[in-house]
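Re: the request from the purification team.
They wanted to know what the chain is likely to look like in 3D before they choose a buffer screen. I agreed to run a prediction and write the result into the notebook, where they can find it.
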Amino acid sequence: MAIIDDILDGLMRRYKERVPDVSRVINAMIREGVIGSVDDIENDHIAFRTMGVPQLGLKSLEKIFLHHGYTKMDPYDFTKKKLSAFWYSPPRDDLPRIFISELRISELTESAQRTIKSYTDEVVNDPVDALDLDDPVAVDEFLHRPLWRTPTWVDYQDLAAESEYASWVIYNRYYLNHFTITIHNLPDGFNTVAMFNEFLEREGLILNSAGGKIKISPDKKLIQSSTVAQVIDAGFDDGRGGIEVHPISGSYVEFAQREILDEFLALPPSEIRRHHRKEGFERDNADGIFESTYRSQTQRLF
């Protein structure tokens, strides 16, 4: 097993512990006979959110994955959300794609910039440069430890009023934002996002409705949906040396259906491989999926 496998296993292990919807979806799939075990799930991609500051951000986090053979691919611009992103192609077809986004904090108000930098300035140098990237335990610990002090509830709320992405990152740091179940290789009756959404809603899961529950690329080759983020009890600095607890958005689960490219439609189903299907991502699809952690969605859980 390669080092990147250990790193990804560590990410997924902690993610499952924190996001109950993961086990809920997997257990329902096993109960319905869709899969035999969790090992049958194909992970389309995982995603991270970052703050766009020189010593952190996308260019810092990507070093981990580039070191382990990932290739940096297409850029994406989310103008209204003030985000930039890239996706990264894996060195093996059995590994997930990576999607990393960052907040362009220079486009926020001066007040929001000051708040963010009061935390991120605690990280003086790029922390990835100090990591042994060939030590999966060290990388796993880094991806799950705080990079700056615990935020106050006031700062979190102030940031959320301007950018819910900013407030999510100020609390969650580099925590895995979501993983994505590949739908098109599932058995008949579950192998389209439309059918899988019906299955999820029968199980009582709430789906992200931003831009519609089903997000479809203009060429109709990439079809996606996602659950609404879990709400977690988060501890904030109360300013008196203690902790005050408030419910906030955590992480969620995404679902992706990648259609066969036109030039390969004549291939027998048994010969279809990953490279025969739509690759990359679609900006408008991703724009709606970002809102899985937004209050307009999470309030639907109650």
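For the purification team: The first strand starts at residue 43 and ends at 51.
Please add any questions underneath this entry.
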